[in-house]
Automatic annotation (TrEMBL):
Species of the source: Solanum bulbocastanum (Wild potato)
Name of the molecule in the record: Reverse transcriptase zinc-binding domain-containing protein
Residue span, Reverse transcriptase zinc-binding domain: 25-109
Pfam family, one: zf-RVT
Record InterPro entries: RVT-Znf (IPR026960)
Lineage: Eukaryota, Viridiplantae, Streptophyta, Embryophyta, Tracheophyta
Length: 178
């Protein structure tokens, strides 16, 4: 979502006049003034960490956007695949179920939280991402550790799910079409 500036022609000309000092024109200042401002996302502190492989950043970014290929998303594209969760096989595979409600992945979250010394029950995706974002804003200690563990959990669930997926042959057959 873009938040547009409400500057009229007259206001813009006044800003141009204020920006000129001694016959010089600071283009950086005017560029900043003219450009629209974007609201900050709560998950930016997770995905914009330095020293992370770009592939991991991308998959984590897809995860917080809920864009990873779950059965629910594949069905939206018209691809018919078995709908049960690849880990527990009991419920329809949605993003929320796969990452936060499935007993297998919930156990993984719980064990890693216990290993880090964090006593916390796992809630829905929005709550967990907000919690992890707050911790990830801390540049050292728990923040750095939780951030890395989150990336590992997302990668593990994503890659393990792809490996176990019963619909993998169906997608490979679709890739053969021109």
């Amino acid at each position: 979502m873009i938040i547009p500036r409400q500057a009229g022609q007259g206001e813009l000309m006044m800003e141009f006049a204020k920006a000129q000092k001694g016959g010089k024109f600071p283009t950086k200042k005017m560029h900043t003034y003219i450009m629209p401002t974007f609201p900050r996302e709560e998950w930016e502190s997770i995905t914009l960490q330095q020293g992370v492989h770009p592939r991991f950043k991308f998959i984590l970014w897809l995860a917080v956007q809920k864009r990873l290929p779950t059965v629910e998303r594949l069905e939206k594209f018209g691809i018919q695949v078995p709908s049960e969760c690849v880990f527990c096989g009991k419920t329809k595979e949605t993003f929320e179920h796969l990452y936060f409600d499935c007993q297998v992945t919930k156990t993984l979250w719980g064990r890693l939280c216990n290993w880090m010394g964090i006593q916390r029950s796992i809630h829905d995706g929005r709550t967990e991402i907000a919690w992890i974002s707050e911790i990830a804003k801390k540049k050292a200690g728990d923040g750095l550790c939780v951030d890395k563990v989150l990336r590992e959990i997302v990668m593990h669930i994503h890659l393990r799910g792809q490996h176990k997926a019963s619909w993998k042959p169906i997608l490979q057959a679709l890739n053969k079409y021109p």
